[in-house]
């Protein structure tokens, strides 16, 4: 028994593929349309909290993901300056429960590859180079098109097509991501043996300097600064900027700089924030993940929230025999308050950094959100 027999998903990111896996496993006919021409082999790393790992287990992908990533416990805080002394070793709340690590880092391309493989093995048809540009709703169906070519008729369209979601715009939702005032440099580098968990440096020339291990030999490093218009700089200039901004940080940053000097690529983006108010659906079209909400990665919950969106929606779709108002009411009741809490906390943590508020209870806020996330979505 499922509420739908055929579903279209726009976007082959973490959220879209998670939904595809669960629906296809339940016997639903699933077509995934991804605007990019292929699965990207580029990218840095991703930090995943325990509640994200719990979703991967529900998808049946946990064993593969665990083997490809670097699980760890706790968080170190270091001071800038000579020696980069560790000033605090903080325990993590196991938001996924006792059966999972508190956190894990892994290369983004590896995560994408594993989820794509599981979606295809479950029976989902994933088509690259196809952008959803048209939606026409009828009584119990959605006609989905791309550049005036009809892609198919479906019982539901899931818009998991990211921050600049075309589906969100197509169904008339005007809420869009807006900058928070912070920008981030990221680079994928080698892991010094001393780095066994995420470490953050507060103070110095940038708001936050840090890194997260992603494998036995790899990690990703990042510098969070005041948002600037850096999107047109050359690769060489990007590397130079990240090198110069990192010189105030010692310890493992010396190894990171060596990789940058040897050609490690640096990329730049801005932090954004938005939260679409209820409802996330218009009829039989619904948006999930970054299409519905975004926030700075200050508590590393962005991917986890998209995964939870997918898990909750597919649980409802595969456990009922009709798409009706009560399904959407339950979906929004379970997802909107949780996503709102994460967005607001993540934005607040960033704003405290921008304001230089030394009296802010960042630890208390992080712990409180972690306690909430420890309860299944």
Mind explaining what this structure looks like?
- The protein is 34% helix and 28% strand.
- It has 377 residues and is α+β, with helices and mostly antiparallel strands.
- It folds into two domains: 6-70 and 106-177 and 274-373, FAD/NAD(P)-binding domain (3-Layer(bba) Sandwich); 179-272, 2-Layer Sandwich (D-Amino Acid Oxidase, Chain A, domain 2), CATH 3.30.9.30.
- A hairpin with a 4-residue loop joins strand 15 and strand 16.
- The protein is globular.
- The two termini are 22 Å apart.
Question: Concise description?
Answer:
By secondary structure, the chain is of the alpha+beta class. It has ten helices and 20 strands.
What order do the helices and strands follow?
Answer: EHEEHHEEEEHEEEEEHEEEEHHEEEEHHH
Spatial ordering of strands, largest sheet: 6-5-14-15-16-13-17-20
| Cα gyration radius (Å) | 21 Å
Question: At CATH's second level, what is the architecture of the largest domain?
Answer: 3-Layer(bba) Sandwich
Tell me what portion of residues adopts beta-strand conformation. Answer: 25-35%
Major β-sheet, in short? 8 strands, mixed
Query: In CATH's first tier, which class of the largest domain applies?
Result: Alpha Beta
Question: How many β-strands, per DSSP?
Answer: 20
Query: What is the end-to-end distance?
Result: 22 Å
Class inferred from helices and paired strands: alpha+beta
Q: How many helical elements?
A: 10
Task: Give the helix level as a range of percent.
Answer: 25-40%
Low-confidence stretches: none
Q: Domains counted in the coordinates: how many?
A: 2
Average pLDDT rating: 95
Instruction: Give the CATH H-level superfamily of the largest domain.
Output: FAD/NAD(P)-binding domain
Query: At the third CATH level, what is the topology name of the largest domain?
Result: FAD/NAD(P)-binding domain
Shape: globular
């Amino acid at each position: 028994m499922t509420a739908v027999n055929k579903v279209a998903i726009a976007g082959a990111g973490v959220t879209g593929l998670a939904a595809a896996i669960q629906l296809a496993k339940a016997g639903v006919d699933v077509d995934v349309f991804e605007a990019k021409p292929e699965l990207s082999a580029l990218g840095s790393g991703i930090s995943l909290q325990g509640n994200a790992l719990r979703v991967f287990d529900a998808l049946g992908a946990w064993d593969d993901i665990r083997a490809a990533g670097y699980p760890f416990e706790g968080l170190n805080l270091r001071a800038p300056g000579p020696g980069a002394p560790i000033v605090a070793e903080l325990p993590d709340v196991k938001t996924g429960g006792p059966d999972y690590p508190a956190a894990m880092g892994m290369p983004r391309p590896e995560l994408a590859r594993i989820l794509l493989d599981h979606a295809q093995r479950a029976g989902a048809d994933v088509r690259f180079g196809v952008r959803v540009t048209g939606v026409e709703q009828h009584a119990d169906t959605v006609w989905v098109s791309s550049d005036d070519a009809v892609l198919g008729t479906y019982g539901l369209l899931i818009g998991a097509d990211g921050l600049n979601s075309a589906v969100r715009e197509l169904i008339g939702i005007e809420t869009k991501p807006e900058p928070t005032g912070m920008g981030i440099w990221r680079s994928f580098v080698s892991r010094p043996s001393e780095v066994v968990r995420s470490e953050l440096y507060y103070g110095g020339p940038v708001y936050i300097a840090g890194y997260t291990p992603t494998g036995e030999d790899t990690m990703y490093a990042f510098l969070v600064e005041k948002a600037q218009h850096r999107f047109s700089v050359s690769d060489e200039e990007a590397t130079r900027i990240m090198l110069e901004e990192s010189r105030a940080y010692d310890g493992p940053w010396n190894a990171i700089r060596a990789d940058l000097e040897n050609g490690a690529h640096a990329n730049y983006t801005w932090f954004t924030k938005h939260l679409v108010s209820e409802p996330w659906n218009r009829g039989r079209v619904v948006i999930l993940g970054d299409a519905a909400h975004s926030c700075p990665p200050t508590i590393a919950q962005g991917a986890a929230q998209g995964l939870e969106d997918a898990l909750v929606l597919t649980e409802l779709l595969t456990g009922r025999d009709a798409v009706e108002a009560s399904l959407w009411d339950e979906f929004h009741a379970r997802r909107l308050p949780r996503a709102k809490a994460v967005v607001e906390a993540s934005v607040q943590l960033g704003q405290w950094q921008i304001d230089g508020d030394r009296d802010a209870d960042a630890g208390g806020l992080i712990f409180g959100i972690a306690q909430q996330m420890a309860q299944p979505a």
